[in-house]
């Protein structure tokens, strides 16, 4: 309940004064086309919407296969929003900007 | 020959002639709750414990703890196996509500996960339990289908023997998502049906490319030792046979069976109407087996062991001592306790555990209550088959319900058995007696005679029935006839002795007469002799006188004196 309460609150705060830092993790598989596209897309989105207010960690699953099990990874590329608010998972090459923004809780259109 | 991976599941390897195709994926499909997960899990566990082949179990439905809990009731310790590095459990969690699809993706994560799991323990076996759950978690079916195709290729490249489970779809399709089109090597369909309130699980190998396999529906069971599939019949009739004989326990019956008894490993049916002593015959057989130092397993479907022991004591058979010695084991259960298949499996298991030399089923008729005639027959076929394979002699008793003893028992097993003894009531003269005859006995000379079967305090015996001018006589009629004969003999004896005496008397009379005559003859002879002697004497004297006279004429005094003296 508390998390759900936080979600609208966090959205408001980002609108007002970017109080909370976005912790993002992007899991990719080497330099596959999907992965490359995902990296480019998410970087662009972050720069546009979360300028200076985010931490993006890019993890290559090929290098750390153990993470796949611990993070329940099936489909790739995968973006996990650890904070703020509830954890959200987004899969795909992040080409659908609207969906990414909705996932990040930035969809205020 | 296609290389195969044995599953270790009882019976399944027989049906598939060795197991699942090695290094290829197999699809197991069926409705919810028909045992897909358990079967695939057992495949992994048996592989790890019996064939030294580590396995990966990827669960899309249940959590690893739940899985471990589920199979712990079957005596498998999954978590321990996992700790030993023989099994790797991986729970895949997908929830559509948690995932936003933002563009093109693939299932590389799954591949990496699976590949890592396989490599980390050197797995030879892989199970993907309800892969179709991916379809509920992810919406882009086009991507999923392409990825599934890639997945099966990936599994083949890895060289693992894989099982993919899938839920049965509507209509004729085997799975909801048409997984069968990806898995073309081996498809096994599981089914769970309830007929007459008794549920039976069945298994069918729908296809098995490049291998022969049993095509029938085979019942299977899930019990405390896992899954057991029961091949209806072994695919071949190539059993070893023995010409060794085992006695029946009733010497007179052995006599009817060519003097030696049954063949070892043969099946014997004892049928008859109620109260004809079928159980007694069975108990005698069990007793004899135990007396010979062999083991006997007695399945009782009607009476409790204690009841049988008590009843048999009354005819002089002490089964208790064999039970104490451990050579006789009773297994009593109500037929309605569970379905036929369960009965069969429990029998299989007990037989495997106890390793008896003889098995008694008393009576098989009661099994009808839990199955149709054809089901009972098919079950008995399998049982006989199984017993013959391991050379166990089996005796069934069956109740004939109709009074007219037909040529066919109700279970229709008479054609299957090697020997068939029929005990029947012979009603005559206001009493019922038991008659026994041998309907058939394969491979041996046997008596064609009806014998009277008597049960006394001392035990069972067979006696020749009386065949007289009045027909077949049994019981008291036979005894009466015997008495009658005895009387006849006595009377004749008496008559003979009287005649003998008369002859003796006559002889004595005759002898007396002879001696009389002889005496008469002697006296006559004496008389004659006397006359004859006198005559002789006279003649002598006359002669003498004449001499004397002559002498006198010569003038001799002396001679005169003598003559005067005379």
From TrEMBL, chain A:
Residues 25-106 form the KaiB domain. One of its GO terms (biological process) is rhythmic process. Pfam families: KaiB (PF07689). Coiled coil: none annotated. This is Circadian clock protein KaiB. It comes from Mucilaginibacter pineti.
Automatic annotation (TrEMBL), chain B:
It comes from Mucilaginibacter pineti. Residues 3-243, 244-476 form the KaiC domain. Keywords: Coiled coil, Hydrolase, Kinase, Phosphoprotein, Repeat, Transferase. It is an enzyme of class 2 (transferase). It comes from the Bacteria. Its EC number is 2.7.11.1. This is non-specific serine/threonine protein kinase. PANTHER family: CIRCADIAN CLOCK OSCILLATOR PROTEIN KAIC 1 (PTHR42926:SF1), PTHR42926. Pfam families: ATPase (PF06745). One of its GO terms (molecular function) is ATP binding. The keyword Cell cycle does not apply. NCBIfam families: PRK09302.1. Residues 500-552 form a coiled coil.
